[in-house]
Write a structure and sequence with these properties.
By secondary structure, this protein is mainly α. It contains two helices and no strands. The chain has a domain of 44 residues.
Length: 65
């Protein structure tokens, strides 16, 4: 039992288009793209904040030594 291959994905895509129509599926694309880019931006900002906190902690350790 494996994951989804191209034939399975294609069948799912055809079923989704039949249920919702091409117009609705076309509207989902840009919304999904915006959601993914927003997620990537949030991850990037979190990583930057973590690096800043790490540098701040290192500088405090150097001051106490």
């Amino acid at each position: 039992m494996g994951g989804f291959g191209w034939p399975e994905i294609l069948i799912i895509l055809v079923i989704v288009i039949l249920i919702f129509g091409v117009g609705k599926v076309a509207d989902v694309g840009p919304a999904l793209g915006k959601a993914i880019s927003g997620f990537k931006k949030a991850v990037r900002e979190t990583e930057e904040e973590g690096k800043k906190e790490e540098k701040k902690a290192e500088s405090k350790e150097e001051e106490t030594e």
